[in-house]
Amino acid sequence: MEIKIKGLTKVFPGDIKKGRKDAIAVHDLDVDVKDGELIGLLGPSGCGKSTTLYMIAGLLEPTSGEIWFGDDEVTHLSPEKRGIGLVFQNYALYPHMTVYKNICFPLTNLRVEEPEKDFDAEGYALIVKLVKDYAKIIKVINASNLNGKINEAGAVNALCETYKISKYVAAKLYKFNFVGAADPKALSEEIAKEYQDKLNNEIAKQKNKGKTINDKFVLLTDGKPNVIRRKLTKDEMDALIREAARIVQISDFLDRKPSELSGGQQQRVAIARALVKKPKVLLLDEPLSNLDARLRIQTREEIRRIQQDTGITTIFVTHDQEEAMSICDDIVVMKLGEEQQIDKPQQVYKDPKNLFVAKFLGTPPINVFNGVIKNNAIYVGDNKIITSKKKLPDGEVYVGIRPEGFMVSKDEKAKEGEITLNVNEVLTMGRDLMLVCSNKEFIGEKIKIIIDSDVEAKVGATNLKLRENKVYVFYKKTEERIYF
Amino acid sequence: MESKNNWKAWLYLAPVLILMSIFTFYPLINTFFISFLKNFDYRSGANSGFTFDNYGIVLGITEKVAGIPESKVTEFVQYALPNTFLVTFITVPISIILSLLIAIGINNVKWFKKGLQTIFFMPYVTNIIAVGMVFSVIFGDNGIFNFIFGLSGTKWVTESASWQNSMTILCLYIIWSALPYKILIFSSGLQNIDKQYYDAAKIDGSNKWKTTMKITIPLLSPQILYIMITSFIGAFKEYNAVVGLFNRNYTDSGNVHDLTTVVYYIYQQLEGNNPQMHIAAAGAVILFAIIMVFTFVQMRVSKKRVHY
Questions:
Q1: What is residue B78's predicted lDDT score, i.e. its pLDDT?
Q2: In angstroms, how far is CA A20 from the centroid of its own chain?
Q3: Which CATH number fits domain B75-271: 1.10.3720.10, 1.10.20.10, 3.30.360.10, 3.30.200.20?
Q4: What is the ipTM of this complex?
Q5: What whole-number distance in Å separates Cα of residue A152 and Cα of residue A170?
Q6: Model-level pTM?
């Protein structure tokens, strides 16, 4: 499902009496998300990214602008009609329901429009088919033992997983008691016959009503199926819940309450609940912010995997640039409700449109210096760092240099393309060295640069050669990029 | 560290503990004790030894006057218990459901929410006897109720009113005065439910009714249990509503004490020149036992349905 956002604006009205101004949370946002893409809304807190997400979800009404899902405008549609799944920042799992019931809840509200089916007949036929291979049933049940003992819950679960059947059918299979039977073969034949009779009776019953059953158990009247609107059956719900649980790997926790799960497990349950009704769009609101550092990396990869497996169009809100960079197809960088740049993650890093984007992405952050442009040359203090072939406007600028944009130079005196920094500390980080430096033109506290650990670095004034593609220049006034 | 500071905690608790020992624990234990004393005279403390007869008399098993089988009759079993059970099982469920609905209603309106909360809380700060008098005027023979519904002459609260009519108004009055506190508790409980659950339910396509039944009420279950237990206890102890509304415990038609409740019965034993303290004590202990059993059953039954 393609998502198009056109001129989306959200204004939270102020209060004149209290002297509070209108708060513009999102201003004139345009985003296109292609089908099956994972897009990240990235920005510091208060930049309107969550507001945008809630407007897409339908929980907030936009002040103006349009939201399109494919060819349908959904701007004023209520959330349940949009076909979305939403994962909340703190998951909002219903604390009084088990994991199973949490995932089930969206399904109980779902109505499907399908050709009328005879579920009884389908069930009978399934059992006839399954009991023929009674040896496998015995094997599965025996394998499900816990400390040498077979219990019903475990056996039913194992049968569900093996045959991809609902727990109701699985419970029936277990209760036939093949394991304890003296002659399982005879038992299986007996059951098969019983259920074949039931099936035949059902077919005959439908025939009396003037209906026939086709090979997919769809009821046909005069050879045509009747499309009806109905709730899901328990079997269908069970199958969907188990499928969703399998995707996020929580099949073992279905009977637990959310409070008995770890943060990462709760998060997966929240994703399962969002995915279970097979939404066209999945929305994630800072889904990793409640997890610890290691789990965060693991879970974000998990989210990427689930997204790719299901091919569902996903919008992901985060304030963590690393998170967004690592899993998103496209990143929308936002600031104070306005979109700053939409691009591929690497492109946003390599080619920032303005100072904000350059500063927001990258760890350690970009080093920003006061600079001047004179006669198409860019200076930081006395260092002439770049001479451009292009015509550049004279005046004061910001010069941003990425931490990896420096190389130690052996020159005694700084040449063109070099900068002189006072190295205060040399920190060994294993693969790299980090130099903490100072310079009077620098804006901020400490310059942090990263160089190869093979290079010898000493404390004191050092000349550093710059990689031109890691240097970005911005207008002082507008903070827009100057391309040189 | 912990044991060192312990004495401080006891010091802080001491004033309350001392007062409670004198005015709560001692009378409590003494009540048990007195309930087993024969012919107890509270002025002199004189008695004729231990007996179980007090309980027998209250429950109508033992002859009040030895040798006369007719004296086995007791108002406790005949009127007090049935009336109390009736009042409890009518007023408690109705008032809980009503207050729950009102609290959810108030929680859902945005405009005038504070005003509504104040209005619904008003009866709580109003004197119950005063309200009882207002009720007796409203439901008087020529009261506004009869006037509005064109039932002039129907007797509701006067002495000549039937037992049924009197009980109806009594229940109505108890429900009305029980609402505000419950609404207050439910309202504060509702405000503590994270709004995100409602957003999640909306995304999940749940309608308002289903959200209320499946999300709101289960999440409010600790408050509901608390209110259930306290209001059952309160209803079992009902007394001042009868005094406030009727200022008597009989109707003309019955010509007996047919409006007596358990606590009313207990107080009645203390009337007159020769207060039957030991009988009253036995009645109080029986009430205590009934309340304990009910509370225990409620805790048991609710264990699975309450989600903390």
A1: 87
A2: 36
A3: 1.10.3720.10
A4: 0.79
A5: 10
A6: 0.80
